Amino acid sequence: MESELNFSFNFTNVVVSRRALSPDLARGAWAPWPTDPRCRNLTVHFTHAVPPRALASFPGSGNTWARYLVEGATGIHTGSVYLDEELSVKGYRGEKEAWNSGTTILQKTHEYQDQTISLFKGRVVLIIRNPYRAILSYHNFNAGGHRGHGSVTDYRRREWIMFMRMQLRRWLLTALQWLTKGSDVQVLHYELLQHNLTAALTSLVTTLGLPADTHRLQCLEKYNSGSFQREQQFFPADVKIFPSDLRRLVDRAILYVNNLLMKRKLPLMPIHLYEFYNGSVPQSIIRHTCQTNLSQTQCDALIDDMNRTRAFQHPFILSAHDYLNDLINGVGRDHLQGIKLSAPVEDLFTSAPEFEVNSQLR
User: Fold this and answer.
1) In the predicted model, is pLDDT for residue 273 greater than 60?
2) How many CB atoms lie within 10 A of CB 10?
3) Where are the alpha helices (DSSP H) in 182-225?
4) Contact between residue 127 and residue 269 where contact means Cβ atoms under 8 Å apart
5) How far is CA 122 from the centre of its chain?
6) What is the pLDDT of residues 75-108, one digit of tens each?
């Protein structure tokens, strides 16, 4: 049965008081920085009987990076509702724990359906990232794994626009569902982690009822990237990643969620740090002009090679045919089943020029 998002929900931001989490020493420890004399004694452990709390996000919003930071800052493993063997091998030992075992402090999920929110009893740390960057990152993950990139030819295809619109709707639903139906909601803004790591982590850790360890935070400042940070991406100079009509749609979605955060008295989006927003020029995109004797196909292949070299462990880059169509026609639609956007939100996906986000949320 479809569920209508209820904007009359009486939201209360509840902070659960927690006693200090005791490490389960019998299960051993993981040392994230074993070669550094100042940091090698800081370890990460499992714990006991912690109520599940989702670490929820749209894919591509830095969930894996946030897990690394939370584990380093708290000394407690994070978990997941999924099982990613690559993450497990890289030291995310909580990846193989049952999400509701009580042994991890937060549990990764990209789900937002009512059932998921109910299973977590509305407890969540919601990661919000600039949707321009989040959807680009998700596209790259599908094509190249945790550190690779998709082919630049993808952005020349009409399927890219379809993919972008579908994933923007999913980004919007992820935020709206958790913000309106969660009972204990904390928000973590990806760009604030990038801009001021220590301040953002201190705020999160203390909100979770744990002490902020200065020594741990200093080590995280030194080793702040984790294992899966993606490099800057090269693009052909003539490719328009986000056409103007698409940018207007994304900008309106950003304003909509930001106004919802304001109504719920939660930290607002740092939109001054949002690349592409309101016509801003991105800093993480490197435009490359090919020599005039190269065809468009040759130029795209050259730039794919440049991106592949940066993500050195990925021997190939998939084309749009390998996954864009699958996401549009199958997998991507599965995430949207059973959820109906309320009329004001659906208006974001129309071309009605009179739509104004602020007036819809008053």
Assistant:
1) yes
2) 5
3) 190-195, 197-207, 214-222
4) no
5) 19
6) 999 999 998 888 888 888 999 999 999 999 999 9
56 touches 182 (CB < 8 A): no
Residue with tokens 């050259």: 302
Residues 6+ apart with CB under 8 A from 27: 45, 46
Position 162: which residue type? M
Tell me the longest C-alpha to C-alpha distance in the chain. 67
What is d(CA 3, CA 26) in angstroms, rounded to the nearest whole number?
A: 45
254, 269 contact by CB (below 8 A): yes
Residue among 142, 147, 173, 139 nearest 64 (CA): 147
- Domains annotated on the chain, with CATH: 23-361 (3.40.50)
Residue in this structure with the two tokens 């099982």, named with its chain if needed:
83
Instruction: Compute the residue count for the chain.
Output: 362
CB 307 within 8 A of CB 317: yes
**What is the phi/psi pair of residue 224, to 5°?**
-95, 0
Q: Give the 3-state secondary structure of residue 319.
A: coil
- CA distances from residue 331 to 88, 277, 326, 337 in whole angstroms, order as listed: 24, 28, 6, 11
Q: How many CA atoms lie less than 13 Å away from 150 in the CB half-sphere?
A: 23
Indicate the DSSP class of residue 73: H
User: At 307, phi and psi to the nearest 5?
Assistant: -70, -35
**Predicted confidence band at 314 (pLDDT cuts at 50, 70, 90)?**
very low
Three-class DSSP category at 151: coil
